Amino acid sequence: MSAATPPFLRAWTAFRRPAYAARPPPRRQFLPREFLEQLLSGVQARLPLLEAPLLDWALAERVHDPAYLRRWQRGEVTRGEERALGFRWDPSVVERGLASSGATFAAAQDALSTGLGLNLGGGTHHAYADHAEGFSFLNDVVISAQWLLDGGHARRVLVLDLDVHQGNGTAAMLANEARAFTVSVHGANNYPFRKERSGLDVALPDGTGDAAYLAVLEGEVLPAAAAFRPDFAFYLAGADVLEGDQLGRLALTPTGVRERDDRVFRWAAETATPLVTVMAGGYNRDPQKLIEARLTTVEALLGSVAGRR
Asked: For the Histone deacetylase domain, which residue ranges apply (predicted)?
């Protein structure tokens, strides 16, 4: 581990839990196992890497319909529901959802005490209160955001979603929560094909590259975030904005993704906003390119630490 690593910063991961080893997600959803281990090793060379705790069901029940959760616990789901999720039900689906959400919750605790938290997975923003969609069973960010607000740990929470897909479940679940502001910058022609209404939606045309993307971030998105004056933020740092992503239609370069991350982390440091970063989507045809993008986000996060001192 680097001598420059801040002593308080660590990464949480669900990817080494038994449920992931027993039945990894579909290949196009994430990385083949050998590349996943390469990613985890790369992060571990930079930061302490901790295994995610399982989320307490009571926290999930604060934002999700308890009847929905019980059915998924028992496997009482229809084939249509499995298709909406993107893969078949088995007990590992439930454990992975709890672990991913547990990692985001642990990262939120870190951010409360140190200003920064990191989950190497998470960002399951297509989960609704009462149904699963798009590889998302539990909405990890909404679970943690609601806990922060209801517990008085934060007064105003920003969800800055820069995944290539609109955070439809997050937008719907927080639509009536005045203390939360949801921002989604996404491909106009990407899944989900029926969008929800976020606090701010920016829909980009296919092929959008670095210059146009960063202009929107700097000219519209970060000013709107600042105007909301959050005292806590979640950042969905999707790598599926990269050119060559199987499920994305944008065309950012690795340099553009690094600049995106730098600007978000710099804004959070300058405003002293506690920030949880979750990695969200990434399905690049070149696994090495995806690994490099993930490690670039970690490096950008490390580079922002000095600005918080």
From this structure: 57-286
